[in-house]
Amino acid sequence: MINEEDLGLVQTPVHCFYSDIENFNVFASSNDKADFSILHINARSLPKKIDSVLSFISSVNNYPFSVIVITETWLYKNDYTALYNIPNYTFVCKGRSDKRGGGVGLYIKRELDFTITDNPNMSNQLESLFVQINCPGLKKKCDRSYIPPTKGGC
């Protein structure tokens, strides 16, 4: 069993919500921009949907997300990832080597200093990518763990 102490996590207040584009734009225009913000997109094939991802980011008024998390990139371990760049972000990903589907990726704002880290405590059933982001005055750990569906259920 993985617990927060194994991952080195510290509980901090988080403002998290699901929203459509219109409501998000109302929220973003009426609030100060967060010091650190994360957007999650389940792409179900980044190669086929990169244009939709770029369009979506544009439609949320180019909100300056610190990290954009992508699950189900459907990238393979040795894919040429420069094809999937987003302006002003660095893309790091962990594709699959043996199966179709799955894969995780992070777009990290270029001005953020980050290090890709390992977490040996993670299960082999999880697809994970850990980075430590060093923001002025504090460090943030960002993990994208994803349990891909299996044939016949979880």
UniProtKB/TrEMBL annotation:
- Which Pfam family name is an example for this entry? Exo_endo_phos
Q: Which GO terms describe its molecular function?
A: catalytic activity
Residues annotated as domain Endonuclease/exonuclease/phosphatase? 41-117
Name under which the protein is recorded: Endonuclease/exonuclease/phosphatase domain-containing protein
The organism encoding this protein is Holothuria leucospilota (Black long sea cucumber)
